[in-house]
Design goal:
- It is globular and about 65 Å long.
- Strand 13 (304-308) and strand 14 form a beta hairpin.
- With 328 residues, the chain is of the alpha+beta class.
- The chain contains 11 helices and 14 strands.
- The strands form 3 sheets. The protein has a 7-stranded mixed sheet with strand order 9-11-8-12-10-13-14, with helices on both faces.
- Helix 2 runs parallel beside helix 3 (95-112).
């Protein structure tokens, strides 16, 4: 496909016709010649916005980009409403690839009750693989908004599901041939299917309803990065038991195969939650079929302590995500 904006016929046929209107807040959505979306807020509501580029994977990128940005919005307690997509495509892209990507976007938006608001699509020499930058818009009553600074000393820190889900599914798809030299087809298939756990909207909804004070989607930098960012945002210390951090065996073994640290690897699909009664919240999440665990507490002061079988170490500042090392 030639460099520049997508031809209008391709834009209409393989992009615009793949997305549908479903949110009453959206007054003006994507169409030819329309450069802006228009949304309407209810009384006492505020918009929450988040932006993410998706660069770590090309497999299922359409679905992946929606989940990642929706999770960020959910961490503030907001209900995701819509997404703006900037899609940069390499010159070798074919129209069926574009249509498949947009169908994946729309399918995921349908599952989450989100609408595509608009954006931009372009073929360019700048990229060698598809790159999507997403800006998400959510809404929430102003008095219900959550930020990391609301975590207080003495509160429990809860983690939903398991760390490393995002990196595990990406590596199982992007590095499938390498993994086949060691692991069974069934093992790889299970790891690839971790993408079904990527959304944290349901645990965010439950946690918000049960009085969570702060939430943080565990993304780049892994669980260690998220712990640091939660504590830094709140100005608190931490006391965390590494043995209580939930992780799947598939993640452990794939990280060992690539020689990377699972505590420093992309972990979308797992939400970090601060709560006065973390054990009660864990029970409520489990009633909804969502695994969760209390891993520690926020503390007074600035010490951020990690315990492991009597050994004590201090949490470091966020480091480069280990997924990039594994992807080479």
């Amino acid at each position: 496909m030639k460099t520049g904006k997508l031809p209008e016929t391709v834009l209409v046929r393989s992009v615009l016709k793949q997305v549908h209107h479903r949110r009453e807040e959206v007054l003006v959505g994507p169409r030819v010649g329309q450069d802006c979306a228009v949304l309407e807020l209810g009384q006492d509501e505020v918009f929450v916005m988040s932006s993410d580029p998706i660069t770590g994977t090309t497999k299922d990128i359409g679905s992946h980009c929606i989940h990642i940005t929706a999770n960020d919005l959910a961490a503030s307690g907001a209900e995701p409403v819509g997404m703006m997509l900037t899609v940069m495509l390499p010159e070798g892209v074919e129209e069926p690839e574009i249509r498949k990507m947009m169908q994946d976007v729309e399918r995921t938006c349908g599952q989450l009750n989100i609408e595509i608001l608009g954006g931009h699509t372009e073929v360019t020499q700048v990229v060698t693989q598809p790159l999507i930058s997403v800006t998400g818009v959510g809404k929430i009553k102003k008095k219900e908004l959550l930020t990391t600074r609301q975590m207080k000393p003495g509160q429990d820190i809860v983690i939903s599901k398991w760390i490393g889900l995002e990196a595990t599914t990406i590596l199982a798809k992007e590095k499938e041939e390498e993994l086949r030299t060691v692991f069974s087809e069934e093992f790889i298939r299970r790891a690839q299917e971790f993408d079904r756990y990527l959304s944290v909207l349901e645990e965010a909804r439950i946690a918000h309803a049960w009085g969570a004070s702060a939430m943080h989607d565990i993304t780049e930098g892994g669980v260690f990065g998220a712990l640091w960012e939660m504590a830094e945002g709140a100005g608190t210390g931490l006391d965390v038991d590494l043995r209580k951090i939930p992780i799947r065996q598939e993640t452990v073994e794939i990280c060992e195969f690539f020689g990377v640290n699972p505590y420093l690897i992309m972990s979308s699909g797992s939400m970090m939650i601060a709560s006065d009664d973390g054990h009660h919240l864990v029970d409520e999440l489990k009633k909804a079929g969502i695994a969760a665990a209390v891993i520690g507490q926020a503390t007074d002061g600035k010490d951020r302590i990690l315990r492991n079988n009597g050994d004590v170490r201090y949490l470091d500042r966020p480091q480069t995500d280990e997924l990039y090392k594994a992807l080479g």
